Every structure is written in structure tokens, then in C-alpha cells.
Amino acid sequence: MTGKFPGYLNGPTTREYTIVNVRNIIHYQPRTSIIQHIFRLLLGAALLYAGISHLTFARTEFVAQVPTWLPLDGDLVVVMSGIVEILLGVALIVLRRYRALVGWVTAIFFVLIFPGNISQYANGIDAFGLNTDTARFVRLFFQPLLVLWALWSTGAWQAWRNRHQDATPCPSLKA
Predict the structure, then answer these.
(1) Is 68 exposed, middle or buried (0-12, 13-18, 19+ CB in 10 A)?
(2) Does the CA dihedral 140-142-143-145 come out positive or negative?
(3) Is the distance from CB of 20 to CB of 170 less than 8 angstroms?
(4) φ, ψ for residue 127 (rounded to 5)?
(5) Which of 158, 36, 38, 140 lies closest to 104 in space, CA to CA?
(6) For the chain, N or C: smaller number of CB within 10 Å?
(7) Is the pLDDT of residue 67 over 70?
(8) DSSP annotation string for 18-50
(9) How many CB atoms within 10 Å of residue 166?
(10) What are the residue ranges spanned by the domains of the chain?
């Protein structure tokens, strides 16, 4: 009795199946609408702007948001996150072939920087016009929207849902 894939008696191993799924997500080119395309470009432009502002005119305000419990210099964190934002912005704009992967990386980045927003709220730090606890609290709800924006506009969520579609194990794993 053959498994799900030709050449396998009992189907692929967990390792092979995982590699297949990751490759499908990386190489899957989802069809995105013109609206998704526009929103992907807007998100890329917003990240470019944010990254540049991290490195220049808003650096002090970003340093104030770095959680005090983070064992790194606040300025270093701001510079590194600014560079990452610039790279993600460029990737969202120009790496159309890998947009689903870039979408996942961008979503993960938004999750990783969320503690800075929580720290700003918890410590009552005034920055970017967020001068009240209510304003800082409301801002917390926008971070999940950024995650969803990254996943939707790049087709990353669609790639995740279709990761098993037409999956064939990598020939080098066939042994």
C-alpha cells in the first residue's frame, strides 16, 4: 500500500513533511487582488518611513519605548529595529516572488516589537502624541491589526492555508 506521495510505503516522515510544508510556504505564490497589492505597498512604505524615523528624527521617542527589562542598550535596539523595518519595507515593495514569506517575517516582527508598546502603556511613557493612558491603551489594539495586515496583503495567510496543496516531498529526501 502506498502512502500519500508516490514512492513512499507509509507516506513521508515528519521531517520530510515539515520541509515540504516550509518550502510550499516559501515558494507559494498566492494570487492577490489589486487591493491587497496596494495595501502591501502601503505597508512597505510605512515600514520604510518608520525605519528611517528610527534612525533619524524620532530616535529619542523610540528609545523611550524600549522596555527597561531588555538587557540591551536602548539606542542599539532602536537602530537594529530601524534597520529591520527598512529591510522589511523594501522587501514588501520589491520581493514580489517571496511576498508570502516576507509577510510572515513582517508579522513575526510586529509580534516581537509588541512588548515595546506594552511597556509604553505600563510605564506611562509619552511619545508620538500618546500622552494619556487611554491613548496608549487604544494603541495596543492596533498591533494585531498590523499583523493581520501583513498576513493578508502579502497572501501569507493564504499560503499557510494552502501549504498542503500539491505537496510533493523533496527528491533529495526520498532516500
Answers:
(1) exposed
(2) positive
(3) yes
(4) -160, 145
(5) 158
(6) N
(7) yes
(8) HHHHHHHHHH------HHHHHHHHHHHHHHHHH
(9) 7
(10) 32-162
Alpha-helical segments (H) within the chain: 14-27, 34-55, 59-65, 74-94, 99-112, 114-122, 133-140, 142-154, 156-161
Q: Is 6 helix (H, G, I), strand (E, B) or coil?
A: coil
The β-bridge partners of 4 are none
Q: What's the rounded Cα separation, in Å, for the pair 66 and 159?
A: 33
The residue whose grid cell reads 513575526 is: 108
Rounded alpha-carbon distances, angstroms, from residue 122 to 31, 110, 140, 141? 41, 18, 11, 14
A 10 A CB-CB count for 21 gives 14
Q: What pTM did the predictor assign?
A: 0.79
Given the C-alpha cell 495586515, which residue does it identify?
A: 149
